[in-house]
Amino acid sequence: MNDRKPIFEPISTWSTQRPAKRAVVFGEQTLSYAQLEYQSNLLARYLLSKYPMHPRGRIAVYLEPGLMMPVVLLAILKAGYTYIPLSDFLPNERVLKILDDAAAFLLLTTVSIMRKTGIGKNFPSTLALEDIAYADMPATISLPVVQKTDIAYVLYTSGSTGLPKGVVIEHGNLSYYLDWFNQALWPETQAVLPLTSTLSFAAAVTQLYAPLLRGDTLHILPANILHEPEKLLTWYEQHPSGALYCVPTVWDALLRYDRQADGASRLPTTVFLSGEPVPFDLKERTFAQCPDATVYNLYGPTETTANGSFARLEKGKAVTLGKALRGSKILIVDDDCSPVSGDRCGEICIVGEGVARGYLNRDTLTHQRFFTQEIDHACYRGHRTGDLGKFNSHGEIVYLGRIDRQIKINGVRIDPEEIEIALREDHRIRHALVRKTEESTGGIRLIAYLVPESEGTISANEIRNFLRLTLPAAMIPSHFIFVETMPKLPNGKLDLQRLPQPVPSRPALSYVFRPAANELEQELIDIFQEALGFCDLGADDNFFDLGGGSLQVIQIRQLIKRRLFSDIDYTLFFDNATPHLLSFIVPYYVNDTDPVVLENDFRLPSISSEQRYFLTLDQISPAPGAYQIAFRLAFGGPLDISAMEWSIQQILKNNPVLRSRFNLNNVSCSEGDYPASDLKIVRQECAAEICTFDELSDEGLLAAAGVPEMDLELMPLIHIRFMSLSASRHILLLQVHHTVFDHDSIGLFFKQFIAYFQAYRAGDRGFELGQGKGYQHYRCWQQQCIQPTRYPQEREFWLETFAHYVHTGADASLFSPRDTLEGKNVWFTISKALTQSLMAFARSHQTTVFVCMLTAFNVLLNTFTRYRHVPIGIPVSNRMLYEETSLLGCFVNRVTYYDKYSPEDDIGSLLDRCRKRVYGLLENQTIPYDILNSDIRAHGWMDLLYAPVCFNYLSAMPSPVNCGGVDIDVKAVESDFAKVDMTLSIHEGECLNVCFNYHMAALKKDEVIRLSKEYIGIIERMTL
């Protein structure tokens, strides 16, 4: 063991050997070695004279980069004190926890930081450097003798108890590591290594002290320069021999920046990578872009001062952690801390002079993670890193991951338990689990799974703001996923495989990513992400570029209204379709006067307006199955029938709307009136001709199953049939009455089924999706909040709109409702290429595919059919207007659309008129259609405004899911009942699927096939 001296002693010798040499450079400011020595001695003596009651005490240091940083640190060390480094990325509450745990008697900072953070108000013993009065200091004060076993600094890292833990570094540890760096590694390149790290990272000790120990110049770069590639690389242009010490994530960003700049910038040719595993791909890209680069992989936690091993990386060779520093040793041990043999995997342990004393105030943890080991007849401390590894055939260490849950992101050590504890301090969160997710680029992000304490909405931005009070930015999760309950295995442990994955990352766009500049932009970004199903969106990301459609518009507007109390209309949204632009609009449309729902009000409405509408249609319909919604689940593989049956029972149990019974005398509905156990799955033999999924048409499946009888008063309104096509091919056909179900409920039903099916397979029979607000709450909300506030103004809008329709030529007097519902379907698919062209066309016109398809339908009707100048009926969903968008139930209303067509109209003007008209209709979609029908009759407009044709734009079904070797998918099964003369249905998907449903008394099949071809032609011409 060498006789290690405190680092300030050799640094001080340069003040006599090279007094005029520049010791520190920060921008245009400099300090010579003589000035550095004088100022650090002066401050050391001041501290000793001012605080004599705290010998060997701890001083927290909260400084921005500048000339005074090395002065302050050296002064504290010379005075025999211990410094506690702090940084501006730490929130005040975390700073206070560190100050309390470290028992710091003083906080040294600047007036600027005190003004920005207000830290002085919370920690009275705060001293600004500008306020130091050196004139009051006694003339002679001697500096104490500092031993190598004295503490130099305590650096805090993430802790699993919810409190950061302090790593105690002695002077001997620091001297050993820096001597190794300067004597063994630096001579290889002799590169100029600037200080780019904050003091709170172990990397700072190498960057700050190593050049001063050699008598070289310490270059201090501005704060956050690692995130400003242009400024950073400008410095390297001016310093061609410069080196960079950073985490792989930062280096990856610089490589990407250089590539986008076509290699015009100058990258450093010596790179020290540390703090994270180095991806092989990153190493190879480094040598591809910088063939002459020298790249080192430095490995070791804060508990080893900075690093415990190193490797020089080479092109084409595997990435390893290399070998131990000179004078240290690497062990691979088992659970009992006994070395494993050969190339077996175990925990990486580092032994040597660089290993810290332990954790401050954490004796138990210190005993668990630190031990003693003999090297060359001398006893040294060892540290169990928690990393898994093994030796390769060359004696180098191969990193294999973590033993515990600890994560490193951008060089910051993170214990997920600390984040979970912070999350649970929010009274709205019952349970929290934090995990990491690896991106395709190799980056790591945090996901927080949250179980809310109760019903209601918690925005991601609210949680972020709450966490920012106590956690640094690196510990704030990127994704917040709300779940009703944490999935468990039979033994009670969490079933991590059943946790949902985060949504896809931001797609490649033609413009650069820009983060939120303020909280309002971030809130709007969160809303965009929630509605569009992306993460990591930017403030300038355009709704249309992200593939947004009409349904997402509704959801975004409702989320803005609910969370930001701003009621913006469709035109405003589409004219300002980025979070940044909306941030200027939202504050001017504040409306926080919505009435509050009294959920315990005994005056619950008998039925919703949507249920009343479909109940009436059912009673007057000549066909009993016309208002039944059918869909099927298809299973491919070894299906566990018990799992399927249990999953269906759970859905029926937890969605009482599916077990409703109606009373037609007083027009009321009792939800959950039928016990779930009474609703059985009927097993049905398949006809011999039914053999495969692909060959089974909707009509064939419905014909095989038959139309179930559904008496609204006497029978359950859901029928379930199970059909086996073969040993590994099965179908579950469900037929549900429209009064309790709609098209969007199919996808929601499927998602619930998958969740329960996975729970059953995992043995978690206690799993239940949350008992949130049910459909009865929607009925109550509709009566209390919508009916008194929106119906009057919407009714006025529609009367004006109907009058405009009549005035501009709407005339359906040649058509009337049919006595029968005999219809047929003609299906066709719009190719993927044309679908993509249509989406691009919609984006370029700042509108949606819905508007484009409706415009094309209007052109078709007025050009190729006798249905000229007739209104078009459009089903719309009110589900997105309610706060619980995942409810099963009936939310469908109907609106009437009309736009006078002229052959002279160009497509641009048609689209613009359609867009404005549709947005107006959707702004006023809640008033029940039957109320408006009464108004139409009262004004004598019934013959003119009857809609003999309909346009229905339907959301896409969820993607298939594989559960334990069973492929499960869902599909709506379309009946051929024709409720009007013709209905055009558009089914969203990678390719748009289109169905022309026609009444056999109104149109012939050949005629409809011709219309379908003409419709395709209109779309093709539109997108040219």
UniProtKB/TrEMBL annotation:
SUPFAM superfamilies: Acetyl-CoA synthetase-like, ACP-like, CoA-dependent acyltransferases. This is AMP-binding protein. Pfam families: AMP-binding, AMP-binding_C, Condensation, PP-binding. It comes from Serratia marcescens. Residues 515-590 form the Carrier domain. InterPro entries: ACP-like_sf, AMP-bd_C, AMP-bd_C_sf, AMP-binding_CS, AMP-dep_synth/lig_dom, ANL_N_sf, CAT-like_dom_sf, Condensation_dom. PROSITE patterns: AMP_BINDING (PS00455), CARRIER (PS50075).
